[in-house]
């Protein structure tokens, strides 16, 4: 019978792992400058300084690219909420504290460079963008671990499981957004951001793997809860559902990508379905997780793709 560990006990036990992952990250990460990715020569003043305000005809982005860029930016904008969530569940001391600070500083570049690009190129309405930012950041973000029904070290385990999947999902979204922008500069910028997200995912995935070894039952319960209730951090932003449907419809991020490029690779890395260190309690969570994944693969994804294909056919007919 495994004894549940408290969050403090888990943090203490995993501190050497966090330090090793931090050092590995610092060795792999590359510094880059947001201003280097912006076509500043395309910029001009708005009306307040004697220029012209935004007009839809000024944008070269498709509706899909606009939806994806706005969603990506507003997601990155909510960094203060993510920092609070992570810092509350980690520690301000040692490797944990160093990681939280470093991760936050790296993430800040993402919103800076995307906003500069959109404003300079007049890709989207800057007034509506600012209004959406104010609304989204005022509402904030919470991972909701208190409502997950988990005990002991749930906050920490819930957080590292969530960001293991979320960072990878964000990488996929940024990478595919670059493709639909039809602009080499935007694509290069978003590939740079995606590379950051991948390294962040590796840190969290490695920590969660160590947690699975340390407290298998607690960790698999957290993973099961996260996977079965997963929402992207931008779920509460203005127009999120409409933008999300448009992005899924055109291959920026859809259910099949979520399963095949995010969930399955991470679960394989953790060897979730081959482990033999769960008690009956952990087995129940693993069986529930397996059932959810099977339902996703055999029912929800085919249903979504059928609906998507019909919608795309209607669009082509109207065109």
UniProtKB/TrEMBL annotation:
Keywords: Fatty acid biosynthesis, Fatty acid metabolism, Iron, Lipid biosynthesis, Lipid metabolism, Metal-binding, Oxidoreductase. Fe cation 1 binds at residues 76, 107, 110, 197. InterPro entries: Fatty_acid_desaturase-2, Ferritin-like_SF, RNR-like. Gene3D superfamilies: Ribonucleotide Reductase, subunit A (1.10.620.20). The keyword Lipid metabolism applies. GO terms for cellular component: cytosol. Homodimer. Belongs to the fatty acid desaturase type 2 family. This is Acyl-[acyl-carrier-protein] desaturase.
């Amino acid at each position: 019978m495994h004894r549940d560990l408290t969050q403090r006990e888990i943090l203490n036990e995993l501190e050497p792992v966090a330090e090793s992952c931090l050092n590995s990250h610092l060795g792999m990460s590359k510094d880059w400058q947001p201003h280097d990715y912006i076509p500043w020569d395309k910029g001009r003043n708005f009306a307040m300084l004697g220029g012209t305000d935004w007009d839809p005809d000024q944008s070269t982005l498709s509706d899909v690219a606009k939806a994806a860029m706005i969603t990506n930016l507003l997601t990155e904008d909510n960094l203060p909420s993510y920092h609070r969530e992570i810092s509350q569940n980690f520690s301000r001391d040692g490797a944990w504290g160093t990681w939280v600070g470093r991760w936050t500083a790296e993430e800040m570049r993402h919103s800076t460079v995307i906003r500069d690009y959109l404003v300079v190129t007049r890709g989207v309405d800057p007034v509506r963008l600012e209004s959406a930012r104010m609304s989204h950041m005022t509402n904030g973000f919470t991972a909701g671990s208190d409502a997950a029904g988990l005990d002991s070290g749930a906050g920490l385990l819930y957080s590292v499981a969530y960001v293991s999947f979320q960072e990878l999902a964000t990488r996929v979204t940024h990478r595919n957004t670059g493709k639909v922008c039809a602009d080499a500069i935007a694509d290069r910028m978003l590939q740079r951001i995606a590379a950051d997200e991948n390294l962040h995912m590796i840190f969290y995935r490695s920590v969660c793997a160590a947690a699975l070894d340390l407290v298998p039952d607690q960790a698999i319960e957290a993973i099961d809860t996260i996977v079965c209730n997963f929402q992207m951090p931008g779920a509460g932003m203005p127009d999120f559902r409409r933008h999300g449907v448009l992005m899924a419809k055109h291959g920026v991020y859809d259910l099949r990508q979520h399963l095949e490029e995010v969930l399955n690779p991470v679960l394989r890395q953790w060897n979730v379905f081959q482990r033999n260190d769960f008690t009956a309690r952990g087995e129940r969570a693993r069986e529930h997780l397996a059932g959810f994944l099977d339902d996703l693969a055999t029912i929800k994804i085919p249903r979504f793709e059928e609906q998507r294909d019909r919608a795309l056919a209607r669009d082509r007919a109207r065109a």
